[in-house]
Specification:
The structure is a single chain. This protein is of the alpha/beta class. The chain has 10 helices and 8 strands. The chain has an 8-stranded mixed sheet, with helices on both faces. The chain is globular.
Length: 237
């Protein structure tokens, strides 16, 4: 079997006790199936629940930070790992062998990084399925990786300056464009599976309010944590 370079998985987490165990188990299964050397680092960002304990019980190393800032948390994880390939995975996202293998092949083929499509776990409503299908087309057309799964070489990540910490949301767009300036950036046809909880726990009124604020303030809203409750507010589930 062809030996892949070692991979550092970086998993940012804030109060993810309910979901992080399944995420880590999926990463262990996937890495073992592909016979790759790897490390799992959970960056526990100011959690108040059992996230850190569960992560440790599931074979991850845990780094505690107090940022409440997704870009800074991911950067802290990258600095604390050592392998030449980086894979950033959200704590509510499941990765299987086909998508990781496709990512590794893309990197070995000369890509500097990329992302994948997204399916929602447990999403049965027509609205959720339609949104997922629309998002896949948008990711591929724009060349933007969804933040729940971003892979790259460490060299390209460092040359790109890492995640832009002036953004509290939209940092996935910024890093996608920054990596694309370093070389070929790809969006895989394969998909990861992620939680649909933002659709489930925040209603249409919350999403419309965010869209209205975005229309009024433009991208400036993405630099204001207080305006981004969908990402930084208290979870209702």
């Amino acid at each position: 079997m062809h030996a892949h370079p070692p991979v550092s998985f970086v998993i940012p987490a804030h109060d993810e006790a309910r979901l992080i165990g399944a995420t880590l188990d999926a990463l262990h299964r996937t890495a073992t199936a592909l016979d790759i050397a790897y490390e799992l680092l959970v960056v526990d960002d100011a959690s108040t629940d059992a996230t850190a304990c569960i992560a440790g019980d599931h074979g991850a190393r845990v780094l505690r930070v107090e940022h409440r800032h997704i870009a800074a948390t991911r950067n802290a994880g990258a600095r604390a790992t050592t392998h030449p390939l980086l894979v950033f995975v959200d704590a509510d996202t499941l990765i299987d062998a086909p998508v990781l293998q496709a990512a590794l092949r893309a990197l070995e083929g000369g890509a500097v990084g990329g992302g994948a499509g997204v399916d929602f776990t447990g999403a049965t409503s027509p609205h959720a399925r339609a949104l997922a299908a629309l998002a896949k087309r948008a990711f591929r057309r724009t060349g933007i990786a969804p933040g729940c799964f971003i892979f790259c070489t460490r060299a390209a990540f460092e040359q790109a300056g890492g995640f832009d910490e002036t953004w509290y949301a939209g940092e996935d767009v910024a890093i996608s464009r920054a990596l694309a300036r370093q070389g070929r950036f790809v969006i895989l046809r394969e998909s990861v599976r992620t939680s649909e909880r933002k659709l489930r726990t925040f209603g249409a009124r919350d999403h419309l309010r965010l869209l209205w604020r975005f229309a009024l303030r433009g991208r400036r809203i993405l630099r204001d944590r207080e305006a981004l409750a969908i990402w930084y507010g208290q979870r209702r589930d």
